[in-house]
Design goal:
Length: 276
């Protein structure tokens, strides 16, 4: 166990992957869903007020009358999918969290909303249908490795109709610049986000070349030592445009965020609207 703890204090190799699907862990998935559904918390989904503003802008910019078939990738518990459906889109949501998809299906059923939810890894997505419009919101794109982003763009391109749109957002260089490296620890004698029972959490925050950051958490308990990795690639406008152009997309617009606000150099995010 001591060797595992020592290793957890070292800066890992780029894009080191977490063992197992922690987002489907019984306890962690409960905490993630709770975070998604908190209307004032931005650690999982954005605040509900922003989602309302964002969905309204999306509806006006890529209207359901022209782009009716919408695929919401990384849909979580369906916060955007429900708004889109209420605006008139025919929505399919995809996510690889069992708990999030189960919640989304139940929520849609209670409200009488006809939304198709799929439990599936979008890196392995093959839906045998194409869409007018695809969304990938809250910087999920940058959480992937370089190779996985290339793979994802190919998959998305295959699932879009000619002239179809893709809207996604990423963290900007401003976010990378403000990211602070360091190591901290926390004692959780009554449990917490990562475990129901007592544990200690060792956290490492690291920067890598090419505007890449890592938030690493190692959980130490009586039973285990487990490490989780959350990667983020940040972008400049130029680096983002260069990357998506290589996959055959044309850029229709660049914004500060997915509410369509005008892009500023000090914005923490960049949103890009693409066309096949």
């Amino acid at each position: 166990m001591l060797n595992k703890i020592i290793q957890s204090l070292e800066k890992p190799l780029l894009y080191q992957k977490t063992a197992g699907e922690f987002w489907n862990d019984e306890h962690i998935s409960k905490q993630m869903l709770k975070a998604h559904l908190d209307p004032e918390f931005e650690g999982a989904s954005r605040k509900l007020s922003f989602i309302d503003k964002s969905a309204a802008w999306i509806k006006d910019t890529i209207p359901p009358t022209s782009y009716p078939l919408l695929l919401d990738m990384g849909c979580g518990p369906g916060l955007y999918a429900e708004k889109f459906t209420q605006y008139g889109y025919k929505v399919t949501g995809i996510d690889f969290s069992h708990r999030a998809i189960e919640y989304a299906r139940n929520s849609a059923l209670k409200q009488g909303l006809h939304i198709k939810y799929l439990f599936q890894d979008y890196l392995e997505m093959s839906l045998h249908e194409t869409f007018d419009f695809i969304t990938m919101i809250y910087c999920d794109y940058g959480a992937l490795s370089t190779d996985d982003r290339k793979k994802l763009l190919r998959i998305i391109y295959q699932h879009l109709k000619p002239g179809g749109k893709l809207l996604l957002d990423v963290f900007s260089k401003e976010t990378f610049d403000s990211f602070r490296e360091g190591q901290t620890w926390e004692s959780c004698p009554s449990g917490g986000f990562w475990r129901e029972h007592s544990y200690i959490a060792l956290s490492g925050h690291y920067k890598y070349q090419d505007l890449i950051t890592l938030e690493q958490t190692t959980i130490i308990s009586d039973a285990e030592v487990a490490t989780y990795y959350i990667w983020n690639t940040c972008f400049t406008q130029n680096s983002l445009i260069e990357e998506v152009n290589k996959s055959g997309f044309n850029v229709s617009g660049i914004f500060e965020n997915v509410a369509g606000e005008k892009s500023h150099h000090n914005s923490p995010t960049i949103a890009i609207l693409l066309e096949k």
